[in-house]
Amino acid sequence: MDKGTDNDLLARFEQYLLRLGFSRATVVNYLADMRGVARWCVESGQGCRQRTLLDLATDDVQAYCQHLMDRGLSPATVNRHLQAIRKFCDFARQANLMESNPALDVRRIQPLPISRRALDADEIARLLEAVQAGRPSLIKRDYAIIQLLLQTGIKVGELIELQLADIELTDGRGTLTVKGNGGNNHRRIPLNALACQALQEYLQVRPPSPDVKHLFLSQEGNSISARTVQRLVNVYTRAAGLTGVSAHTLRYTFATSMLEETGDVATVANLLGHRSVETTLRYIQADQEVID
Q1: Residues 6 or more apart from 259 whose CB is under 8 A from it?
Q2: Percent of the chain surpassing pLDDT 70
Q3: Using CA atoms, how far apart are residues 115 and 269, in angstroms rounded to an integer?
Q4: Which of 31, 82, 185, 288 is deepest in the core (most CB within 10 A)?
């Protein structure tokens, strides 16, 4: 990939968006999204044929959207990235740099139905028992993953990006640092005794992998994938005899539990990483649209 060429293209794309009257925030987001596409092309090394962004094909755009889904990004976030690609290709087509817009043939991601129920105490106990009865070599890791989802409400995409340095444990207390997109909008979440104990026991058996800084590792010693986390949640919930339960159910369980415990919507919004209290209220109220 000719980095200089792509940088020049994105500079022209920025001016194009400004002429159309897009807000500075939207322009910044679109440029960041397109830089992400360019980086992925370099890092993936396969399934991406282009040398520059002008060589994007429909298959490339589809593959990139799937890559974002595999990272655990929500359909709404993936669709935002797709919109940025569509707008970039519109710019390139109007500038006679592309013959057509390959992103127009890529369908937006439709969100799957999400369970809006929270687990009760008995269901949580059954789930944790199922994990404890799992494969001996994976019990400590999987138990820490399930407890972290239950006790912090973080998303799967956030969990798989956690690094060892993001965890602080001292005397049965601790904090978790969750990094936002691009390293911005960090939030710190207190860890209760259950989460601390689960993490401490996992760290004692975590395979030594000097070159991998991620907290949770696969059996091969690499950082764990979103698909693996989603699969293990499904395996353990089925073993516990629970139906209609996903990783999102654990996040929703945390949210409703924290609201009941604190009575403070602002605190819950901060812990979930929501930008506003209104978002949290819509999220928790079952008769409103699901927002992640």
Answers
A1: 265, 268, 284
A2: 89
A3: 20
A4: 82
Name the 3-class secondary structure at 197: helix
Determine the Cα angle at 156 with ends 281 and 259, to 5°. Answer: 30
Element (H, E) at 176: strand 173-178
pLDDT-above-90 percentage for the chain? 55
The single residue listed with the structure tokens 């999220």 is 283
Q: What average pLDDT does this structure show over 68-81? A: 82
- The CATH number, out of the four listed (3.40.50.970, 1.10.443.10, 3.40.1280.10, 1.20.1250.20), of the domain defined by the range 121-284: 1.10.443.10
Q: Which CATH number fits domain 3-105: 3.30.160.60, 1.10.150.130, 3.40.50.150, 3.30.160.20?
A: 1.10.150.130
Domain coordinates of the chain in residue numbers?
3-105, 121-284
Report the candidate in 233, 148, 250, 249 with the shortest Cα–Cα distance to residue 189: 148
Contact residues for 263 (Cβ-Cβ < 8 A; gap 6+): none
pLDDT band at 289 (very low <50, low <70, confident <90, very high): very low
Find, among 74, 35, 71, 23, the residue nearest to 251 by Cα.
74
Give the pLDDT mean for 134-146. 95
* Chain-centre distance for alpha carbon 143: 20
- Burial label for 41, CB within 10 Å (0-12, 13-18, 19+), is buried
b/e for 139-149, b at 16 or more Cβ within 10 A?
A: bbbbbbbbbbb
Least confident of 177-181, 188-192, 266-270: 177-181
Q: Note the pTM of the prediction, 2 decimals.
A: 0.63
Per-residue pLDDT of 185-195, as tens digits, reads 689 999 999 99
